Amino acid sequence: MREFLQIPVQASAHAAEVDQMTILVHWVMLLLFVGWGAFFLYTLVRFRQGANPKANYHGVKSHFSRYNEIGVAIIEGVLLVAFAIPVWAARVDAFPSEAESTVVRVVAEQFAWNVHYPGTDGQFGRTDIKLVDANNPIGLDRTDPSAKDDFNSINQLALPVDRPAIIHLSSKDVIHSFSLIQMRVKQDAVPGISIPVWFTPTMTGDWEINCSQLCGLGHYRMRGFYSIKTQADYEAWLQEQAAGLVTQ
Ligand SMILES: [Cu+2]
């Protein structure tokens, strides 16, 4: 099933759990397909016109289909309550502490991902929609002391491996969806609210950020890139960004 579904690489701590759920759902769908398909073929043969020239006005007497429906409903209930809800709850409830995580903000817009890093002080500087312009896509207020070391990138997200990452997602215009397939992360970015999402990357690599909501004419080109680096590479990268700030 894994090969059939062409499941992408599992590069985060919770990826295996999500995949297990996806695979289970596909097996159950296959079972339903075969079951209902067989029933359909049976009715085609059993109730064909040739063998039943006169319609039966009483209809079906057996309760088989009712029990079958109840069985399917129970299986779906178990899938939802025993598998889907616990996986979902573990994903969205048990947030790691910000002190032990890499925290960044991602602001979506038509059609790009702006990434806001808090810099070495770990404090996000003030942002204001009135300050947004072509050179300052996140509206960062450089007069705020916490903003001095902040930097932002467009369509480039870097994170260290084996450390929880918390991303505060928002949007400047319409609803976008932040999707990191290899991390098994997908979350809508909604204008007016900040939605946190977290995951722990377990593998270094370079992949794409996709927008999973049809967000406008340029939706197809709303792709960013993310890079999971070793701790040393990540720190070197941060320093590079900081050096870039000084020379500006
Ligand atoms: Cu989008």
User: Which geometry do the CA atoms define?
Assistant: elongated
Our estimate of the beta-strand percent is 15-25%
Number of continuous helical runs: 4
The largest β sheet comes out as:
5 strands, mixed
> Bound compounds, please?
copper (II) ion
End-to-end CA span: 52 Å
Question: What is the averaged pLDDT score?
Answer: 90
Question: Which stretches are poorly predicted, pLDDT < 50 over at least 5 residues?
Answer: none
How many runs of DSSP E, i.e. beta strands?
Answer: 10
Structural class: alpha+beta
Gyration radius over CA: 25 Å
- SSE arrangement, N to C: HHHEEEEEEEEEEH
Fraction of residues in H or I helices: 25-40%
The strands making up the biggest β-sheet line up spatially as 3-2-1-5-8
Defining traits:
alpha+beta; five-stranded mixed beta sheet; 4 helices; 10 strands; 24% strand; binds copper (II) ion
Give an overview in words.
This protein is 33% helix and 24% strand. The chain is α+β, with helices and mostly antiparallel strands and 248 residues long. It has a five-stranded mixed beta sheet with strand order 3-2-1-5-8. The chain has a five-stranded mixed beta sheet with strand order 4-10-9-6-7. A hairpin with a 2-residue loop joins strand 1 (102-109) and strand 2. Helix 2 (15-46) runs antiparallel to helix 3 (64-92). The longest helix is centred in the first third of the chain and has 32 residues, at 15-46. It is elongated, with a radius of gyration of 25 Å. The structure holds copper (II) ion.
